[in-house]
Write a structure and sequence with these properties.
heterodimer, A: alpha/beta, 8-stranded parallel barrel, about 15% strand, B: alpha/beta, 8-stranded mixed beta sheet, 9 helices, about 35% helix
Chain lengths: ~400, ~270
Amino acid sequence: MRFFSFHLMPYPALPDDYDGPAWVTCPNSLFDPGVGSQIYNRYLDELILAEELGFDGVCVNEHHQNAYGLMPSPNLMASILARQTSRVRIAVVGNALPLYDPPTRVAEEFAMIDCISGGRLIAGMVVGGGPEYYSFSINPAHARERFQEAHDIIKRAWTEPGPFEFIGKHYKLRYVNSWPRPVQQPHPEIWIPGVGSLETIEFVARNRYAYMGIPYFHIDVFERMFKMMREACQRQGYEVDPLQLGWLVPIYVAETDAEARRQYEDHFWYFVRRLLPGINISPPGYTSIRSYENILKGAKTFALNLKTWDEVQAGEYAIVGSPETVTERLTENLRRLGPGNLLGLFQLGTLPADATRRSLELFGTEVMPKLRAAFPAGQPVLGAPAAVA
Amino acid sequence: MATSLSDGRLSTNVGTVQVLRAGAGDPVVYLHSAMGEGAGTLFLEDLADEREVVAPVFPGFGESEGIESIDDMDDAVFHLLDVLDRLGLSSPAVVGLSLGGWMAAELAVRYPDRVSRLVLVNPVGLYLPGAEIKELFGRPLRELAQDMFADQSHPMAQMMSQLDTMAASEVDIPFEVLRPLLQSMAATAKLAWDPYLHDPKLAGRLHRVSSPALIVRGAQDTLVPRAHAEAYASGISRAALVEVEGAAHLLPLEKPAELVELVKAHLGA
């Protein structure tokens, strides 16, 4: 099992009287640059702490024009982390490829981060969230085609001698000749996040990349997505490697179960009720009708529909409790889902710095060692014998 | 005495498309809106009492294939030309609603001799600063219904509101109910997401339209501001503008009899 600390860099200070969406049309007059100045530095500290605590990697991601995640350029953050850490993998999950024109910029920036970090980059590539097609006025009906072309350009830029020409439908580049090239050969590990779209899963399986299940759904939805991924790999003629699967889940650890809930619950609801509204916009044409039907099956369990803490616990929307409880819940769910990468979301908005830090420390010292023992590297995770105390 | 439309298929370069037809006489081609209205539209059935009504369903809507090969209005116009050729329609009258009105206008500026008479009903297609077309994509259906219908008791307005209520109360909506709407919106997005529901070059080309044109506007249309109908009417040299009271954006569904009278008068003139 590999452990990652995932950060969204959320905005913690939406005013109480604002009840609109956090995406696309959320007025940017609500952004206080003073708050921004303070939290960016605090959030970077939280990621750097993960290395000290023994995590295998840190994750940043890309979102635009919203209060949910203040990281329009994860590559800026990843490049800072490349200098300020020395051991952890730096996963950018991911760059929203269709938003880059030309996408050779992604090949170049990722190669820079890989060079600066000495080969620690995990290169995430994503179609981009539905809201981003509104924020960028990019035709959602072209999302998949642009993603596919951009991916091909980037991979070829890393693996084929340049210069070469790429004339596609959306990108027409006379000279592709990326300077620099990545340290990792033939290219960095590639991760693709998804919410259960068949096209995405088939693409990941075909290329033997890793699939990251996007959170805030009932645990059953992850189970179905990972099963789809396993079957897609089998159709390609191989068994999925656990390292090809990642589960992203909010985690909070405190001394006791009661303390954990008392300290965490209000912050979880700020995240769900204030920062998620608008994230679920799915513009027309963004997914095929076939995939849409599949995604709809999970849509009703999306966290926006949560009403009570009992529902949160029952659906494993967040793993919250004492070190013993968190270890037990994670063990059970990892055995059920079978991923080789656990991506913990340790900060989700208003959670104070000291509480976030304490939770990370408890996870690093009390939970992670037990999970490492229960899920040794290179061994199956799905249905693993649970030898956890 | 309404004539119901027959449901036929036509082979085209992009795939098999659906063509609804009824009646006999001088042909009238009807180009539908982003809602994909067709069979069961009273306006078409009433018009078919006197004319041959031909309503091709655009790729991506209904049963028509081929949206994969169409990316923009340029592709759409070439597709329409193919459809007209294969139907043997050299110079029909063309009536278009909203998105279909925009398509009809694009056809008429590029190939003026292929359109004998033009009727644009609440057409989109132009960008007018200060009079922007409201958002069509991703809005709650109940809200959209208010732009589409002056009378919220219209069965389609009721259905849109009902779907909205079901979604809000987490009731399972059968996917077969959602599918046509999702398909229509996806096809519309492909043509009109960016630039949003317009072609920046169209206004400068409207003088190319040579046929007599009638611009019909639903007086209660809150999706497309009145300025758009006025801009079409002033940009096309032989154009008249008529407003119909008691109708919003989907005028042919709300005031079919009034529209039939207007169209007959315009085609007979």
